[in-house]
Amino acid sequence: MTNKFYICDCKKGIIMEILKQVKLKGVPDIVEVNEDGSIIKYKGKVVSTYSVHSTKGPHAYKACHIGKKNFYVHRIIAEAYVKNPKPVSNKFVMHLSVDISNNHYSNLKWGDGKDLHAKNKDIGLTGTPAHRNGSPISYEEALKVAKRLDSGEFAKDICLEYGVSEMSIARIRKRYCNKTSVSPRYENDIKTTVFKLSQKYSAPEIAKITGLKYHTIYRWLKKMETEKPAFIY
Question: Whole-model pTM above 0.70?
Answer without folding.
Answer: no
